UniProtKB/TrEMBL annotation, chains A, B, C, D:
UDP-N-acetylglucosamine 2-epimerase domain location: 25-375
Annotated GO MF terms: hydrolase activity, acting on glycosyl bonds
Taxonomic classification: Bacteria, Pseudomonadati, Thermodesulfobacteriota, Desulfovibrionia, Desulfovibrionales
Protein's gene: neuC
Documented EC number(s): 3.2.1.183
Taxonomic source organism: Halodesulfovibrio aestuarii
Hydrolase in keyword set: yes
Class of the enzyme per the UniProt entry, highest EC level: hydrolase
Official protein name in the record: UDP-N-acetylglucosamine 2-epimerase
Length: 388, 388, 388, 388
């Protein structure tokens, strides 16, 4: 029997993994901590990129898998998936008996982790609270904050908001975001591409010459507007087609409406044979960031454009409302879901490439270690009260 | 096809019903609203008092029943019950297609209602947010606030807290608590007991002479300390035994640990044959309040002692931490879980009977109508953002 | 209030719909019956062909939808999907209060329908019991028989087997299989193709000239050998590629392992650009049978090859064990999962086209009406006992 | 890594434990087997006697607990409990990776075990198939048979029926019933009562003098007639009251309707203060059998009266249909649910006490060892086909 704190981290989607990876490494190496990594939701599913494979090839041991994704391509299935995930998580926590559970950010199923831990009286640490975005993520994130006992936030802004929501000052720590740690590693390295993206990750569509300029697109459906998902992706596709620069397009994750997005993409691929886009399903976070670091501009509505790209100094065209409210640096311009506007702003941003300074808004690249240190030394309690 | 707003209210436990009953009546009668009443959780189960029967005998139609209580007498079963409840609620909301869902207060399963509504893009109204208590209820209540789109709070204090948590001012209304509406009806009536409690509700234990002074006890197990539930109930039992005044004891609800409490009570009943306690499982809210209004003092950890009894001017001995943080009036004194202290404070409070003034802290008795009016006219949206 | 029997039929997959469609029509028209159609499982999901859309365009009203498919691409998810389906079905049956529930054939999730009905004391009718196949279907089918109160079987052979399993003679009726009803309609009509398959159903791959000879392939993964799914589909693909006749390939359904099959097909499509195969996801049963009736030969492991094609006189190459044990007529030859053998047998069978007689083994084309009539007049009970 | 077969046995209720206990012991001791004991359903719940405690005090290690009981006191909750149990079992089997799963007899939730194992391609052994009873157990038992790969039956009659249902002869073994093993141990021992039942198990009601004659009653609600449960228990109570011999009454298990039964018993206890009945919730199988062996007669509808009492030679009055169809010896007479008839037959049977011969109908007392031996040496496969 060891006296190490048993830390159970739950990863439920590909993007969440990038947001926690360096923390997982630091927890695993920490002399006072023992890591139990639970992988669930879309992170286990092939057509959402099977993050579990990436996680294992990164050397992590997966302690438990929680298959909880209820199919339905509609909003009801998000609710049901969350219900099923609570059941799965409560079983896993019963078996693992963790001293701390860590829930990451604001995807809908993260509330399942939070509820299972809180109702079982297990201290809950929440990573990346206190940010502002809108859409369902907004509700999920702040609900996680109100359930959590420890808050590991990315920025000073976030810290102030969490405290203003009524959390004890002593329970909130600014660690930066672990995704910036990966960005730091990537930006420290030689600028040459030291791997073969097409050989490793395949993808479908146009060939890409990585010695030439390229764009990156990541565009997720917005769940509260999911019927418009197809229209929205088509506007972006049209802008990219018109700009006629080679483009790496990353497949959206498993929210309701992803099928509207998928259909728009499939239809585009059948209609336009000579476009310069290559579609990818998944990539290891480091490889993705290496490619991102060299991109002319990132287009879409991913938070990567706002967070990692602030640190990396990569220009971004942020489309629509998905990131509304999120603290942002000078690398970002905003566009509506309109092909012409997107097209014009991409041209503007390409001109910024190489001219932007590093912005430490979301961390200095040591978040993983800070998170592990806080989890190791914080005095946990599951009792709390609004501070006002 | 009607243009009325379809309002789906979910009641999951006996005490929640008292907290919403007059709002249900006002919604049902409102010309612009249509009521869909969902009953679930312990409110359907015989051994927790089957609130569903009371609800129907009050003249309400139950639109759907959600059996979601997973047995287990432990904390895991609270989590699983919540997971199952999300699945049940999402099915029901899919069938009912409500324009608004109403979730009541802060029991653990109310988060299931909130999550199902929010993930299905249905506007969510939360009744009785912004209060402060501690224990798991505290986390649940504020998480409900962060998920809800409309806040119907009981007091000015609560309004300020909800706004401080980052909710838009325009989404928060002070309505008072519907439980006070019932208290107003009761206190307006003749002081004579116009029904036969023993004939109507049975109960087991000592005979009660309602023309003589009596106490009321309501003591719930505290989920984060559930192993102590038996000890806690035994301290109260001992104090009541010693005070030797006839007592009406109301059975606790379905939280984990209720079996510790139950065992303490059963053991007491077998050990002491000549005690003056009668145990009840359930009573209609009006009948309960009528009896409460005439009680010398209420003992235990129920919020009724703090809320309704403020309005009624009934003295209360509040035991332990369950109501810690809750705004309270002059009718309340606090005790530890210690038989002697409870005993002494009961004596003090009995002397206060008849001398306390009405306190409108939790409402003026018109909350139900106000809630219905707000739900009828509020412009709902499911998009929101932290205000800071 | 009507005195009609309320008949709840549950359809959980595309192939099940063809097996029950004419019975649904006859139940709907029957003066003594009222139809409640429940659609669940993969029948609701786009990537499995969304049978629900076909059902509605055929004029049926779907009374309830049960989203129960748990993703996982493994055997555990079949079990979990069944567990979730029981919960969904029990809710639906509670709301619908049917007098009879009808479960169709032998897919894994049909046991969910059977268990929910039986445990709720609702008489259960099972369609297509008494057949012999192997694989998990075999266990599911006979378990359905042992739970069901009424047996509507396709053939005299099946009747004997159901009775030998201990069911009362009076509870077993030979109705034939409703899929043969559709085959009869199709074979009665003019041999000209009166619709445009490519315009209606799209599909991807080679163009098809329907005035020229063509093959049909339907090959499902076998769940108890699911790791071999990719190998098996590749052998068939190779045989089809070699025979070099235009081919309509129908996508497999949602069993575990379908991703092995899918991968084999995708890989083939990327490797061979000039093949003559067109891949379809779905087709209305009538359109499918019209095309099937004109095919040179059907290849794969679908029961259609053995059942409908017996009636239609279409030659079939049945591959592997999936249909082992099933009663078959002269139109069928068997092959291992070996490209060469499949190739040779396809050549043999093409020569049989037009020379086979109609075989009434699975019915005379009036099964739907017979099923409705039996359900309308049978005296149901939920009590039964083994007859020996 | 061991080469022992990993045998996962699932116990879901108090009575099932008695039916498998000696097999558990033999599996645990067998050099080629490794036991994984899963306890679920009502076996974990206090108010159904918490068999888990008994199991642990017997020295077994519980490998996993599956909380799956959904409250509801109605038939829907039986279905939902089974759905939830499938989910729980599939998780457990995924973690345990058993080589064989063992499901016991015919309670409704045993189908959850069978389905989870079969769908996950794990060989399934079924204990006590081939018997005939009626009610929902009948359907469950034979469905288990049709899903199972190995059949360990209690009698030659049962073996013939299982084979006649289409199972391979080589997959059916007559082992006798493990409950008879316990009966053998008890009947071999000294006739003196070597423990204090009241001290160990408490119970409520009349005092019992174990040196004087006494009756035993076990009466379960019948799920398909559950509204009559209260009437039925009242008839038996009236007969027992009239016969005026001291009686040990064992509380029913967790089927729907148990509350009708419970209410009848509670009402009786309040009405009649001087009855000679003592009510027990639970007892270890050995202690129960020791007491049973000395009883004048057993009354009710438990299978113990037919099985164990055949071996022990204890007279039995079997009431109602619950055991209809079950092979029985000379110790049993049948009664309707009618107080007078029950009363008269109890008198008849008391006169038989001490005059009945041992009947080996359900085994010779070595079933546990035989079951372990078969599981250790049988060549398992998950493929099977009807034999005709």
């Amino acid at each position: 029997m060891t006296n190490k704190r048993r830390v159970c981290v739950v990863v439920t989607a590909r993007p969440s993994y990038a947001r926690i990876k360096t923390a997982l490494q630091a927890i695993e190496k920490h002399p006072d901590l023992e890591l139990f990594l639970v992988v669930g939701g879309s992170a286990l599913i092939e057509r959402y990129g099977n993050a579990a494979d990436v996680i294992q090839s990164d050397g992590f041991t997966i302690s438990a898998r929680a298959y909880s994704l209820v199919e339905g391509e509609n909003l009801t299935s998000m609710a049901k998936t969350t219900g099923l995930a609570i059941m799965e998580m409560s079983n896993i926590f019963l078996n693992v008996s963790p001293d701390v559970v860590v829930t990451v950010a604001d995807r809908y199923e993260t509330l399942a982790t939070s509820i299972a831990a809180a109702y079982m009286n297990i201290p809950l640490a929440h990573v990346q609270g206190g940010e502002v975005t809108g859409s369902i993520d907004e509700k999920v994130r702040h609900a996680n904050t109100k359930i959590a006992d420890l808050h590991l936030v990315a920025s000073e802004y976030a810290r102030k908001r969490v405290i203003q929501m009524g959390e004890r000052e002593g329970s909130v720590y600014v660690t930066g975001c672990p995704s910036i740690d990966l960005a730091r590693l990537v930006s420290d390295r030689t600028p040459n591409l030291d791997f073969d993206p097409l050989g490793l990750y395949g993808g479908v569509g146009a060939d890409i010459d990585f010695t030439e300029p390229y764009l990156i697109v990541m565009q997720h459906p917005i769940t509260t507007q999911y019927e418009q998902a197809r229209f929205q992706v088509e506007e972006t596709l049209e802008a990219i087609r018109k700009i006629d620069i080679q483009t790496l397009w990353f497949w959206p994750n498993s929210d309701a409406g992803s099928d509207g997005t998928s259909k728009g993409i499939r239809s585009f691929r059948e209609q336009y044979k000579n476009h310069k886009i290559r579609f990818f399903k998944n990539m290891s976070p480091e490889h993705f960031l290496t490619i991102l670091n060299r991109a002319e501009t990132i287009v879409g509505n991913s938070s990567v454009a706002i967070r990692e790209c602030a640190y990396l100094g990569v220009p971004a065209v942020n489309i629509g409302d998905r990131q509304a409210g999120r603290d942002r640096g000078k690398n970002v311009v905003n566009s509506d879901h309109a092909a012409d506007e997107i097209y014009e702003l991409i041209k503007v941003q390409i001109a910024q490439k190489g001219k932007l300074e590093q912005d430490l808004l979301y961390g200095d690249g040591t978040a993983g270690q800070k998170i592990a240190d806080v989890i190791a030394m914080h005095e946990f309690t599951t009792e709390k009260m609004l501070t006002y």
